[in-house]
From TrEMBL:
Designated name of the protein: DUF952-domain-containing protein
Short name of any one Pfam family annotated for the protein: DUF952
Highest taxon, organism lineage: Eukaryota
Coiled coil, from the record: none
InterPro entries according to UniProt: DUF952
Amino acid sequence: MPAPSPLPIYLYKILPSAPPSPLPARLPLSDLDRNDGYIHLSTSEQVPSTADKFFGDVSELWLLKIKYEVLAAGTDADGEVNMDKRVEVKWEEVGRGCFAHLYGADLGKGNVESAVKVEKRGSWAESLSLEW
């Protein structure tokens, strides 16, 4: 399945707990990301259903807000584009849609725009209002 058209302005990384503040140069990978070999990301439209499916039993989440163009340019967590390292955002089909996966880079203060705490009120779909 191809990337969405138009491409999103932002991608989001869902975290079950608060990231360090201030954000470090490199955030630790989740067990899922480490095991899969890439960082799982969601568009604003995908975040509510992903949150309901994987984090339905928690009352708050943290979202890392990341400009798509920053990742697509190959920007690593340190804010540098390393030409020797193959950083890539791939849009890959997963059972319920096409999701962005970040290969060859980490997330951190150099490529994450902000971290936002969201409290659950009803479902995550009712609690989230994100920028596309």
